[in-house]
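Figure 6 in text form: structure in, sequence out.
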C-alpha cells in the first residue's frame, strides 16, 4: 500500500512540475506602467449573498474555507494582480488595474472528490491611468479559468501544496499576462 501511495504521489508531482508560476513577455506599453491601484468588483451577473451561504450558477467558491466568499475571491484576485504589477509593470506611468468579475464558478468539494471539471472564471479587465482615468487597455469577457483537477489527481495536487486557490491564482496571472501581452 505504501508503494502504491508513493507512486501516485510521485507521478502526480511529476505532472505538477510543469505547472509553475506563469511568466512570459508583456508589451512595451505594459512594462512602462507601474500598478498603483487594484479595483475588484462583481458584475451584475453575480447573484450570491454577501454572507456566502448560497450558491448560484455563476458564483461558486469553496477554496478558502468559511467566510464571505466575495471577500475571499477579491483577495484571490488582488494577490494575482499584485504579482502581475511586480513582475510586468516596472515603469513610471501610474496605472490602476480594474477587474469586474462576471463569472467565478470553481468546482465544489463534492465535484473535486468525485471527478474533474473546469474552473470557469470570466472577467472584464481594464487598465486606466491612475491620475486621469484614461483607459489604456480594455478587454471584455476574458477567460481566466482552467481545467480543474479532481479525484486522485486533485488529491495529489493538494498533497503537493497546489490546491484550487493556488491553481486558480496561477491561471488568473497567466491569462491576464497573455491579455496584456497583446496590448501593443
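Output sequence:
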Amino acid at each position: 500500500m505504501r508503494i502504491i501511495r508513493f507512486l501516485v504521489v510521485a507521478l502526480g508531482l511529476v505532472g505538477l512540475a510543469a505547472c509553475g508560476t506563469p511568466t512570459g513577455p508583456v508589451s512595451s506599453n505594459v512594462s512602462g506602467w507601474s500598478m498603483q491601484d487594484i479595483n475588484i468588483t462583481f458584475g451584475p451577473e453575480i447573484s450570491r449573498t454577501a454572507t456566502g451561504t448560497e450558491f448560484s450558477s455563476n458564483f461558486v467558491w469553496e477554496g478558502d474555507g468559511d467566510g464571505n466568499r466575495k471577500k475571499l475571491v477579491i483577495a484571490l484576485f488582488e494577490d494575482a494582480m499584485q504579482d502581475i504589477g511586480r513582475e510586468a509593470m516596472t515603469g513610471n506611468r501610474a496605472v490602476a488595474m480594474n477587474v469586474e468579475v462576471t463569472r467565478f464558478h470553481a468546482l465544489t468539494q463534492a465535484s473535486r472528490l468525485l471527478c474533474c471539471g473546469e474552473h470557469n472564471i470570466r472577467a472584464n479587465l481594464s487598465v486606466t491611468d491612475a491620475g486621469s482615468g484614461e483607459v489604456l487597455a480594455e478587454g471584455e469577457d476574458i477567460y481566466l479559468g482552467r481545467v480543474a483537477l479532481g479525484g486522485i489527481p486533485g488529491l495529489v495536487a493538494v498533497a503537493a501544496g497546489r490546491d484550487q486557490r493556488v491553481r486558480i491564482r496561477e491561471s488568473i496571472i497567466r491569462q491576464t499576462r497573455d491579455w496584456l501581452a497583446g496590448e501593443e
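Caption detail: The two ends are 55 Å apart (CA to CA).
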